[in-house]
Design goal:
Collagenase (Catalytic Domain); alpha/beta; metal-binding
Length: 168
């Protein structure tokens, strides 16, 4: 189950845009071998809101593009498909039968700014940020250079499956 909650008024969000975001999430999950029904919340916010969340949760007092709040713990260097593919989850990992992966908080205002900076579409930037965040929910990280390389390859591979290129 994918929950989308639009809590901002800077960018217009219609059902077509929400469908694209849902398709991106489902493709990312499929490509990462997630074979269980999942729950993910996606919250659209503006720069002021994400700055406040960033300050409260990470003690970083600045806006950012996307924040990920995974609900599953992963051993260092492991991702969902390495750890949980054959894992027997107990009831605490589920909500009404769905495996709770976590929350994505996306600043649509920041995504718009970045799409202009990178000279590609707003939709492409949002899709990239959503894939990036879903990979975080699945245990990927980019703090070390080798992790960053793996994560970037997965992001581009997933977006490629959807034919979402930098020119879109």
């Amino acid at each position: 189950m994918i929950f989308i909650d639009d809590r901002q008024d800077k960018m217009s969000v219609d059902s077509d845009f929400e469908k694209i975001i849902e398709e991106v999430i489902l493709t990312a999950l499929k490509e990462e071998l997630v074979d269980k029904a999942c729950e993910i919340s996606v919250i659209f916010v503006d720069n002021d809101s994400i700055r406040e969340i960033n300050k409260e949760t990470r003690n970083i007092d600045r806006e950012t593009d996307v924040l990920s709040f995974p609900m599953l713990d992963y051993p260092k260097g492991k991702v969902y498909k390495d750890v949980y593919l054959n894992y027997n989850f107990d009831a605490s990992f589920f909500n009404e039968g769905d495996l709770v992966l976590g929350d994505v908080v996306l600043s649509l205002e920041k995504a718009k700014e970045q799409s202009e900076d990178f000279n590609h579409s707003f939709t492409r930037e949002c899709c990239y940020l959503v894939v990036h965040s879903i990979l975080h929910l699945l245990g990927y990280d980019h703090m070390a250079e080798d992790e960053k390389k793996i994560m970037r390859e997965r992001e581009e591979s997933i977006l490629g499956k959807l034919n979402i290129t930098r020119e879109v």
